[in-house]
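User: Can you recover a sequence for this backbone? Please restate the input before giving your answer.

Assistant: Of course. Working from this structure:
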């Protein structure tokens, strides 16, 4: 396959210098002739878990490590993609680790059931290494970091959005009522959860930074030459712009200031009402756009994409390989990072021929 051979992952530097330079340039919204492309060619025969018990699938350290290392080794990492292991406890990991009841649905989904009746009760929760799940997440991070140098990056578990975490602990409906009727009870809870978020992130950086100093990666899969994390408030689709600015924006700003390379995960067309607010945050480097099921076609979002780029923000998009040329023709290449997960061999060959500078 022209230009798309598997990259060597065992020699320094890691990631390869050309990939690191292109991704750093993308984070800084530098000029680029072609978009950055994160593409993976999934293994034809992916390793199946040997233990089908759902609790073991998610939390048995040996099971998880064996499965994830096999996935990394069997996947072909193309373009600017960098092998990484996401310490995964589902999207609601933080509420679960703070006391929400976890329900393991299948190998893709964990539900978090609220356990508190009001925001004031949240002030008593904490991350505790006595808790088996939290201890497991930390041990997975340690084990993965030990084997990571020259092989893979390690992405922290989902720390979540601050208001998202409150909803996960107290329930969406009751918490949204509190926002409107008793905001004085909500603000201290959000401040408390933000401090927990920051302490957890710093702790994880201490664990993971030993494997790859001065670089990082989040579950979005984008290597950065410093600390990074995909920030989010998925519940924002239920909020007015004024509510978002009051309850989410102050904490987002603090988390953005904590990170060298902050990315915001903008989830769903209903959340676009908050895009103008996000674009006014100078220190926010990039936005990841996830339009939602049934709205994936890139062509319908050209105006929005152009707006983000015109504000000097880099943008991560998910697209089919055949959409890339039209997108670049419409908005240019600068600031674009396009994720094409799990493509097939024919698509990989076409991308390699079309973008030989990317598929080194």
């Amino acid at each position: 396959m022209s230009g798309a051979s598997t990259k060597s992952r065992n020699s320094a530097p890691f990631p390869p210098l050309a990939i690191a330079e292109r991704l750093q340039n993308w984070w800084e919204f530098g000029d680029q002739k072609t978009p950055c492309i994160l593409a993976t060619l999934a293994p034809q025969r992916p390793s199946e878990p040997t233990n089908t018990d759902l609790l073991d699938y998610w939390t048995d350290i040996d099971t998880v490590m064996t499965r994830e290392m096999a996935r990394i080794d069997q996947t072909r990492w193309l373009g600017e993609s960098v092998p990484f292991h996401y310490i995964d406890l589902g999207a609601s990991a933080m509420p679960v680790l703070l006391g929400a009841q976890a329900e393991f649905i299948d190998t893709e989904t964990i539900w978090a059931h609220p356990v508190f009746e009001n925001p004031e009760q949240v002030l008593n929760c904490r991350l505790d290494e006595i808790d088996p799940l939290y201890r497991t997440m930390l041990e997975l991070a340690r084990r993965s970091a030990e084997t990571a140098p020259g092989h893979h990056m390690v992405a922290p578990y989902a720390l979540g959005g601050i208001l998202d975490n409150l909803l996960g602990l107290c329930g969406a409906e009751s918490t949204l009522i509190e926002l409107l009727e008793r905001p004085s009870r909500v603000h201290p809870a959000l401040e408390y959860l933000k401090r927990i978020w920051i302490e957890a992130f710093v702790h994880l950086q201490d664990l993971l930074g030993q494997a790859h100093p001065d670089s990082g990666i989040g579950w979005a899969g984008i290597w950065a030459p410093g600390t990074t994390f995909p920030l989010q408030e998925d519940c924002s689709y239920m909020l007015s712009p004024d509510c978002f600015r009051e309850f989410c924006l102050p904490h987002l700003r603090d988390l953005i200031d904590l990170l060298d390379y902050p990315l915001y995960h903008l989830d769903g067309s209903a959340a676009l009402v908050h895009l103008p607010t996000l674009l006014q945050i100078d220190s926010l480097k990039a936005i990841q756009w996830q339009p939602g099921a049934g709205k994936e076609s890139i062509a319908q979002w050209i105006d929005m994409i152009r707006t983000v780029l015109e504000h000097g923000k880099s943008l991560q998009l998910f697209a089919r390989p055949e959409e890339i040329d039209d997108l670049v023709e419409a908005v240019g290449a600068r600031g674009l990072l396009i994720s094409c997960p799990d493509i097939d061999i024919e698509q990989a060959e076409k991308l390699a021929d079309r973008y030989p500078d990317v598929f080194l």
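That completes the design. Residues 1-10 have pLDDT under 50 and may be disordered.
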